[in-house]
Amino acid sequence: MSDKRKRRENLITALLIAGMCIVVGATIVFIVKYSKKDKVDTVRLTPGMTEGTGLSVESDLPASSSEAAPTETPAPTPTDTPTPSPTLSPTPTNTSTPTPTPKPEKLKSLSGYDPGDTISSDKIDRDNLSQYFTSSEIVEGDSVYNRIYGKSYVSNSNIGLSDLRYLKMLHINFNGDYQVGEMIVNKSVAGEVLEIFEILCAEGYQIYSMYLIDNFWSGDAATSDWYSIDANNTSAFCYREATGSSNLSKHALGRAIDINPQQNPYVTYTDGKAKYSHDNAADYVYDRSSSKAHEITTSDRAYELFTSYGWTWGGSWNSPKDYQHFQKS
C-alpha cells in the first residue's frame, strides 16, 4: 500500500472516531441535563402564604457550571382588608301620633229630643244632670197646650194653666238607657219633683216610660188613665175624679204621680180578697215582700225620696192599696 493511500485511510479513521466521540459526548450531556431537570422541585411555603401564591422554589438544576443561587422569596402582597363601614343608625320613621277619636260633645239640654227618645250615655254630662231637668209654663196656643186641651186639661174652676208646669227630664228605662220623659205637675211642687227625679236618674233608678197621659187618650179621662197604666206609663196630671170616688183626684190638681204602675198596681180588698184591673200586674199583687225589680216598698229609693219631701205613699193605705201612687196635699 502506498503512503498516500495509508494517510488517507488514517484520516478517515480519525474523522470517524472524532465523529463518534462527538455523538457520544452530546448524548451524555443530554442525558445528564434532562435527568436532573426531572427531579422534584422542593417548594417552601412561608407562613401566611397559600399554595400557588408567593412560592419559594429550590431547584437542583445548575446554571452553567455552578448551582444557581436560591430564588429570593418575595414578600407576600398585603391584602387590602376593606375597612368596615360604620353601621348607620336607622333613620327614625316619621310616625305621626294617631289622632284621638273625638269624644262626643256633651249635651247642654234636651232641646231637639222628644219624649221617648233614648240618648247615648256618652252624650250625657253626669256632672251637670240638672240641665236636663227643666220646668216651663204652659201657654194657651203653644205645643203642650194643643196636646192637652180638651183631653187631660179642660176649662174648670179648680186649676188653671198658670197653676201647672210642664216638666221635661231624663230617666233610666228598663234597658238601662237614658230616655227623655215628660210630666205635668202643679207649679208649687215642680221644683221638688225635678229634684227627686234627678236624684233617681243619677242613681240609676229605672222607670219604664214617662209620657203625658194624652198619648193614651181614648175619649175620656178615666179610660185614658186605664190605658196609660196598662202600658206601665209613669204620669201625673190628669183632670179627673179619683178612682172609685166622685171627688177630684190629686192628679186633677197636679199633685200626684203614679210610678211604674204594672209593678205597683192599684188593689182593693173585699173580705180579704184582692181585686185589681190589670192582668199584667198579677205577679205584683199578693207578695210585696219579695223585692222584685221595680216594686215600690218602704225600702225603695222612690219611697225614701218622696216621703222625705212630705209626700204620702198609697201603698201605706189600708184599702185601697195604691202602690204606684205618691201625692202631696
Helix content: 10-25%
Helix-strand sequence: HEEEEEEHEEHEHEEEEHEEE
Q: Number of DSSP helices? A: 5
Largest sheet: 4 strands, antiparallel
Supply Rg: 61 Å
Uncertain stretches: 37-70
Q: On the 0-100 scale, what is the average pLDDT?
A: 84
Shape: rod-shaped
Explained architecture:
The chain is of the alpha+beta class and 329 residues long. Helices cover 23% and strands 17% of the residues. It has five helices and 16 strands. The strands form six sheets. It has a four-stranded antiparallel β-sheet with strand order 5-8-7-6, covered by helices on one side. Strand 3 and strand 4 form a beta hairpin. The longest helix is centred in the N-terminal third of the chain and has 35 residues. It is rod-shaped. The chain starts with a helix and ends with a strand. About 10% of the residues have low confidence.
Please render the helix and strand layout as text.
Layout: H1 3-37, E1 42-44, E2 56-58, E3 62-63, E4 66-67, E5 118-119, E6 134-137, H2 143-148, E7 164-172, E8 178-186, H3 187-202, E9 209-210, H4 221-230, E10 233-234, E11 256-258, E12 266-270, E13 273-275, H5 301-308, E14 312-313, E15 321-322, E16 325-327
Parallel strand pairs: 9-10
Antiparallel strand pairs: 1-2, 3-4, 5-8, 6-7, 7-8, 11-16, 12-13, 12-15, 14-16
